[in-house]
Specification:
Elements (H helix, E strand, L loop, with lengths): L1 H15 L17 H17 L20 H15 L7 H17 L6 H23 L11 H5 L3 H8 L9 H9 L9 H22 L29 E10 L3 H15 L3 H4 L7 E9 L5 E3 L15 E9 L11 E18 L2 H7 L5 E16 L5 E7 L3 E4 L3 E4 L1 E4 L8 E4 L14
Antiparallel strand pairs: 1-2, 2-3, 2-5, 4-5, 4-9, 5-6, 6-7, 6-8, 7-11, 10-11
């Protein structure tokens, strides 16, 4: 992983900022103006508040100081921030397109599963990318040979490494760094640090052997592991929603008439009942929750109505959700044809409704007490999407809409766009295919 994040990406940044081994642009024009690079650095720092922590570490102003950038930080900047920040900033589009090709290849490498066709695509893709790199930066000039370090050539062997060791998530790791991190707390003596490390290693090996011999892995586990799938104090999981857990704070909500009408309209569609038949069974005061957690390794998202905004807090209120939409909704005489569509928006409320009285069950056609969890979302009005990456742009929000809480798939991040005066945002999603809803015909 040092190949990409610790070498290739920093070298590209040095080339774009005119700080690569004293070289000028030669016959190219890939260098970014100082004001543009400073704006990119400021936008990178601002994105720390709008990109959730689940994406990776918070980045500072990379235009001022990159000394604290780790491989993890460079990966976050490359995969999620750079496609938005660098768009339309180069004098010629070919440099941006070349970099986007690299991002596409990296995303392909990071897939959980890879077919033989994918591996071949990686092999062919890096061959083309390296050839274009030599054309744009090396420019076939012996005086610019320093732009072609061995790390650029090593890109041609990534596909071979995948064939030999499997998907890169199994090998692009830092086992030695993690091992050193486990040893560092053991150093108690400045005079004899090696003795402290020796005792620590010996103790770890002994306890590992005891675990293996007597099958005491859980009993002798030195780390307290709390499963995210367990309901903790103050949380709530309903039998009707086994894929998520509601998290505090929990507060009463008295919706305004317009908001209540939207709730009733949503329930009317859900239960196939007329609004007047639903209104009597809704209390004037509803229950709202501040957070929810998707089980089995899913994200935790926050409701903006109960989220305290302060400096340094990373926003988790923007989500991706998927709902069925009638393709013929503008043609009333046409038969309904539903298709699954993806939307993005800001989660405003998480509302819990409970129908358990006999009259309510009869009026709504229910055979047992039922809980309904609704998500009130202000959708992002998408203006355009990236032609090659899963990035979408917006400047404004639409009217508040209500969907079932189970429609939310994951949290997404927002990166400030430098286009059009910096008034828009780019939506970035790290979930990939593993957090996509599947439409199954029953």
């Amino acid at each position: 992983m040092h190949l990409i994040w610790e070498n290739l990406i920093p070298n590209l940044l040095k080339l774009w900022t005119g700080k690569f081994k004293g070289l000028d642009v030669g016959t190219g024009c890939y260098e970014l103006p100082k004001t543009v690079w400073e704006a990119i650095g400021e936008a990178t720092a601002r994105s720390g508040d709008t990109v959730p922590a689940s994406f990776g570490p918070r980045l500072g102003n990379i235009a001022q100081d990159r000394s604290a950038c780790t491989a993890d930080a460079y990966s976050v900047w490359t995969l999620y921030l750079s496609p938005v920040l660098l768009r339309s900033q180069f004098l010629h589009q070919r440099y941006y397109n070349h970099f986007v090709t690299l991002i596409e290849l990296l995303n392909l490498c990071l897939q959980f599963e890879l077919s033989k066709a994918d591996i071949q695509k990686i092999r062919d893709g890096f061959c083309v990318w390296v050839e274009q790199y030599e054309k744009y930066y090396y420019q076939y000039s012996p005086s610019r040979l320093s732009t072609c370090p061995v790390t650029v050539h090593a890109l041609l062997h990534i596909a071979d490494g995948i064939e030999a060791t499997g998907p890169v998530w199994a090998s692009w790791a830092f086992p030695m760094e993690r091992f050193c991190g486990r040893l560092q707390p053991a150093i108690k003596s400045r005079l004899h640090p090696w003795s402290s490390i020796d005792r620590r290693i010996l103790a770890l090996i002994q306890i590992t052997q005891v675990k293996l011999k007597y099958r005491l892995h859980d009993e002798l586990n030195l780390r307290r592991i709390v499963s995210d799938d367990l309901v903790q104090r103050g949380e709530y999981q309903d039998p009707d929603y086994l894929t998520c857990i509601l998290m505090p704070p929990r507060r009463p909500l008295t919706p305004e008439k317009g908001f209540m009408d939207k709730i009733i309209g949503c329930l009317a569609t859900r239960f196939d009942r007329r609004p007047p038949n639903i209104r009597p069974f809704l209390p004037s005061e509803l229950t709202q929750w501040g957070k929810a957690r998707i089980l089995n390794g899913g994200d935790t998202f926050h409701a903006a109505s109960l989220t305290q905004h302060h400096i340094g807090r990373r926003d988790r209120t923007y989500v991706r959700y998927e709902v069925y939409v009638d393709k013929n909704r503008h043609r009333r005489k046409q038969k309904e044809v539903f298709e699954l569509q993806t939307f993005y928006g800001r989660l405003e409320y998480i509302i819990m409704l409970r129908f358990d009285s006999a009259t309510a069950l009869e009026a709504l056609g229910l055979d047992r007490p039922t809980t309904v969890l609704l998500a009130a979302i202000k959708p992002c009005a998408i203006t355009h999407s990236h032609p090659r990456l899963d990035i979408h742009y917006f400047t404004q929000h639409g009217a508040l809409s209500l969907v079932d809480l189970a429609c939310i798939q994951c949290v997404v991040g927002r990166v400030p766009s430098l286009e059009n005066g910096g008034k828009g945002w780019g939506i970035v999603d790290r979930s990939g295919a593993l957090a996509r809803a599947l439409a199954i015909d029953l």
